[in-house]
Amino acid sequence: MPASDKPFPLVLLTGPSGAGRSTAIKALEDVGYETIDNLPLGLLQRLLSGQPLRQPMALGLDVRNRDFSPDALLAAMEIARGIPNAAADLLYLDCRAEVLRRRYNETRRSHPMARQEDPTEGIERELSLLSGVRTYADVLIDTSELSPHELRQAVQARFSQLNEQAIGLTIQSFSYKRGLPQGADIVVDCRFLHNPHWQEDLRALDGGDAAVGAYVSEDPGFAPFMERMEQMVEGLLPGYIREGRSHLMIAFGCTGGKHRSVFVTETMAESLANRGWQVSIRHRELNRFASLPARIPVSQEDGEHTV
After folding, report:
1. Which pLDDT tens digit goes with each residue over 107-144?
2. How far apart are CA 253 and CA 256, in angstroms?
3. 182 Cα distance to chain centroid
């Protein structure tokens, strides 16, 4: 398909109240999306059956609508996928129940499904209602540990049209103590590497510090592990793109999510960026988010740019 005929992104955004939908909608608006929040599902077909899309569009859909139901939302997704010049994605913003309760307690707002009750009642009802929808999400972002700024970065890194890359890449570090990251496509265990935690001078540092990186790199298993991982990921990406995947998350885990997994994540992200891929980085336990722009690959033999 010629670049001029590329379909426009059409994002249907949902998730439990308090998970950050308003922040995500504003983030998409800031990168050029036409946005409509709290759209009645009954109006969706009328909205999309007129003129073809002329720019990316994001629609916020949630339980505040009187005609909202899981079946109606999934039917809306089928309508969206039938638009000729649109590439539709269902974006689900997830969040743990205890975090939602804390957010409602902090804001003292009533829950839309429990106006006269404790917000906990509404949170439980809504999560139960949305459980079927969550499994159909094309993109799932868990906002439990994200600040509003980090959520904006995550959404824009995934959906911004300023990046023409065929697939969005997120490399994430995590701690096995806190469980696997939601939405991860590939999970890799780094606990076989030497653990800096047991070195007194390294314990307070993290995988972004040079001393920790040097220590982990000295493990005889590190270099062959990274070489095979880089080869595997580079070999898999064309296949994911052929299958129509628009995003891939690779998660590296260790015991505490502070040393080994962080260093491996940074190393893998740097390698992919040097191979021409745009990469988003998330260190879950350190509560950090960053991105690396794609770089023009350079020939190691003569230093000239490759074409």
Report:
1. 888 888 888 788 899 999 999 989 888 888 888 999 99
2. 8
3. 9
CATH architecture group of domain 3-159: 3-Layer(aba) Sandwich (3.40)
Q: What's the pLDDT at 91?
A: 94
How far is Cα 228 from Cα 159, in angstroms, rounded to an integer?
A: 29
Cα gap 6→172, rounded to integer Å: 30
Residues of the chain with CATH 3.40.50.300: 3-159
90-94, 159-163, 296-300, range with greatest mean pLDDT: 90-94
Give this prediction's pTM.
0.60
Sheet order of strands, 288-292 included: 186-189, 247-254, 168-175, 279-283, 288-292
Distance CA 123, CA 109 (A): 12
Q: Residue 215's CB: how many other CB atoms inside 10 A? A: 22
Q: What is the pLDDT of residues 245-269, one digit of tens each?
A: 778 899 999 999 999 999 999 999 9
Q: Give the three-state DSSP class for 90.
A: strand
**Amino acid at the residue 91:** L
Q: Measuring CA to CA, how many Å separate 164 from each of 40, 158, 265, 278?
A: 32, 11, 23, 9
For the chain, give the percent of residues with pLDDT over 70: 92
Phi then psi for 102, rounded to 5 degrees? -65, -40
CB-based contact 60:36 (threshold 8 Å): yes
Secondary structure of 244-259 as H, E, C letters: CCCEEEEEEEECCCCC
Tokens of 266: 């940074």
Q: What is the mean pLDDT of the chain?
A: 86
